[in-house]
Structure formats: C-alpha cells, structure tokens
Design goal:
mainly alpha
C-alpha cells in the first residue's frame, strides 16, 4: 500500500469536514449531509479498489485459480 493513498484519504476527510462545517454555520444542514455522504462514497470507492487489489495480490502469491 502506498503512503500517498493514505494522504489522499486524509485530504478528502479534511476537505469534507471543512465544507460541512461552513455549510452548517450558514444553516445549510441538508447540503452538509449530502456533502458528507459524497465524501463517504468517494472514500469507500477508493477502499473497495484497494481491497480488490489486495485479493488479486493474495491470489497471485498463493497461485489460486
């Protein structure tokens, strides 16, 4: 796993947090919720691809299939 992926995930989290805080202060709680859900979907998408790569690596190491 590359360290740059961790930094990307952390950056997404920081940006989503800042945007949500700004939106909540301006009484836009509904949009803040949507922004947090979009951030969650982005992070989960990255994580699913990483888990897929992990399974491919394990299959290659142990010569499965």
């Amino acid at each position: 796993m590359e360290i740059s992926i961790i930094f990307k995930l952390a950056a997404i989290g920081i940006i989503v947090t800042v945007v949500c805080q700004v939106l909540k202060k301006s009484d836009r709680d509904d949009i803040a919720t949507v922004v947090s859900l979009v951030g969650l979907v982005l992070v989960l998408t990255v994580m699913v691809t990483m888990v897929g790569d992990l399974f491919e690596t394990v299959k290659a190491i142990f010569d499965l299939y």
